[in-house]
Model the fold of this input.
Amino acid sequence: MNHPIIDFAMHLLSATFLIGMIGSAVVVAISFVEDLYELFGE
Done:
């Protein structure tokens, strides 16, 4: 039997982790696209 506060903290932690992963993927994608523009833009 889990304590409700611990259960909530675990959900919060995994949600924060997911958001962080998505944010990192977006940043990587944006910098990758910008690099492509610099390579092929000239």
Observations:
- The mean pLDDT is 94.
- The chain has one helix and no strands.
- The two ends are 62 Å apart (CA to CA).
- Residues 32 and 38 are 10 Å apart (CA to CA).
